[in-house]
Amino acid sequence: MRIAGNYTFEATREEVWAAINDPEVLARTIPGCQRLDQIAEHEYESTLKVGLQAVRGVYTGRMKLDGHVPLESYAIHLDGKGSNGFLKGAGTVHLRTDGVNTILDYGGEAQIGGTIASIGQRLLDGAAKTLIHQSLKALASQVEARRLHLTEPNHEVQIVLAEELALEAAPVTALPLTPPNFNGVAAAPFPQSVAPTWRTITVPPGQGLSEAALARGSIETFFLTRPWLPWVLSAFLLGYLLGRRK
Fold first, then answer.
1. What pLDDT sits at residue 166?
2. Of the chain's two ends, which shows fewer C-beta atoms within 10 Å, N or C?
3. b/e sequence 111-125, b meaning 16+ C-beta within 10 Å
């Protein structure tokens, strides 16, 4: 299965790039994600609960991001499985500026096997488009929320800054940068390596891309891809009502 498309954000490229590289944002925009485990740099594991009828089920998988070109693009590698099948895929996201907006172009290929592969290409394409569109829509909401958070006064930050200034004003006793000499021989500098700390991100109820949001999104996508349908339904209903009056 091949996927491709784009989405326009009313935000700068810097804002969108920061969002798509933030695990907290990813956890809230991956469909059905309730928990995201960061197991390495730019590598994550998660369990997803998807409520779309065509691909309904619980899936576990791994996502890896690499090939980063700052403010421009990176590659995505996916490997997931569930009770009704498996998926392996790879793709890229690319950012470009369009005036005051930023356009995210995406594309890739996926191999699908198991029971889920038997539901038909058309249904799979429709489910994939819905999941991607709702994910990008949630991402746009996250970008906007981050902008509002940064522009609003943050009293907690002000308190922290005041405390830092107070600490800077206090007298500080300088510490040696290297260990002292022993018997006239200087010891080697202390190693300053810091082990990476990976984490688990839990998405609070109501803050992620839930099954209800996906269901609503599937209906929205259905009508957006068929703009003529409401007019046909309205004409049919009007004709039915007029026919009953006769």
1. 52
2. C
3. ebeeebbebeeeebe
Q: For residues 39 and 49, what is the distance between their CA atoms, to the nearest angstrom?
A: 20
Q: What is the mean pLDDT of the chain?
A: 76
Across 20-54, b (16+ Cβ under 10 Å) vs e yields: beebebbbbbbbbbbebbbeeeeebbbbbbbbbeb
Give domain limits for the chain.
Answer: 2-150+197-222
* DSSP secondary structure, 106-130, as one string: EEEEEEEESGGGGG-HHHHHHHHHH
User: What is the rounded CA–CA span in Å between residue 15 and residue 28?
Assistant: 16
Using the structure block, give the residue that is written with the tokens 């349908």: 229
pLDDT of residue 190: 46
What is this structure's pTM?
0.68
Q: Any idea which residue has 């944002």 for tokens? A: 25
CB contact at 8 A, 102 and 16: yes
The DSSP bridge partners found for residue 66 are 75
Q: Give dist(CA 222, CA 235) in Å, integer.
A: 19
Which pLDDT does position 222 carry in this prediction? 53
Sign of CA dihedral 9, 230, 208, 56: negative
Domain 2-150+197-222 has CATH 3.30.530.20: yes
Which parts of the chain are beta strand (E)?
2-9, 33-40, 43-50, 57-69, 73-82, 85-98, 101-113, 181-182, 185-186, 200-202
75 closest CA partner among 98, 42, 47, 46: 42
